[in-house]
Design brief:
The chain has helices spanning about 15-30, 40-50, 65-80, 105-130, 155-175, 190-200, 205-210, 220-230; strands spanning about 10, 30-35, 55-60, 85-90, 135-140, 180-185, 240-245. It is an alpha/beta fold. It has a single domain, classed as Rossmann fold. It has a seven-stranded parallel beta sheet with strand order 3-2-1-4-5-6-7, sandwiched between helices. The radius of gyration is 18 Å and the shape is globular. The termini are far apart. Bound molecules: nicotinamide-adenine-dinucleotide.
Amino acid sequence: MKGIQGKITLVTGGTRGIGKGIAKRFLEEGATVIIVGGKNKEDADHAVAELSPLGPIEAMMVDLSDAAAVEKMVDDVAAKYGRIDILVNNAGIQIRQWATEFKLEDFDKVINVNMRAYYLASRTAARHMKEQGGGSIVCISSGNSQCYTSQRSAYNISKTAVNGLVATLGVEWARFNIRINAVAPGYVMTEMIQKGIDDGIIDIENIMKVIPMKRLLLPEEIGSTVAFLASDEASGITGQTIFTDGGWSKAGLPESKDL
Ligand SMILES: NC(=O)c1ccc[n+]([C@@H]2O[C@H](COP(=O)([O-])OP(=O)(O)OC[C@H]3O[C@@H](n4cnc5c(N)ncnc54)[C@H](O)[C@@H]3O)[C@@H](O)[C@H]2O)c1
């Protein structure tokens, strides 16, 4: 893809799951990749060991619920590499509970990681990108920004806000040659989904009734859409949310697997 080779690319949550699939794709395209993990240093070490044969990669451990730490993360990358070309806001958390019972501290936790950190990292990166003459930002939203499921109120709200965030900043920053878009994944098999299955909240057979492709997606399939949006191939696109969801957001009635 045009315009990724040699680019300094920061991927939050790149230590596992979808973020690791995104990091892999950018390395394959010739980028220099910095992945960010939260608490699990083992995940970060594994990801670096697995992906380093593909190209230059390093890991940082940052708590994205800490506003000052988010800004420092972006500034540190720009200081070390002299620029930041591509930012992928991917790290996200899910807490499942009925809205009537949702603890305020849990609500804040989800909003701060899934939305406030995206805003802070994006605007810190944009300050550097403005000086450099441009850049590209991609945020990971969710099918739950359009198809809403019970017991996920904070998550659904945070992801709906991400679609609004890229739209509003896309309009504001087009004049600085900075594009910002979102990718909304459907169901992708990662630790986040596995936990939902283990907790008895996610029923894969039931979900497949509303996914026209009738399968879970792979992290690499999200990585392809992210790389496209970040690349010069998407030079005319900003402020958009692209659903990479096996058709979920366009499905009407549930269909049994025999149809
Ligand atoms: N898996 C799916 O089916 C699915 C569907 C739609 C959207 N998404 C979104 O895709 C993104 C990645 O999801 P995933 O399934 O790979 O999740 P995951 O739980 O497997 O990985 C989450 C990543 O985020 C990082 N992270 C979490 N909290 C953090 C914090 N406070 N500070 C720093 N890093 C932190 C973790 O270290 C990890 O690298 C999320 O934004 C999620 O909402 C996932």
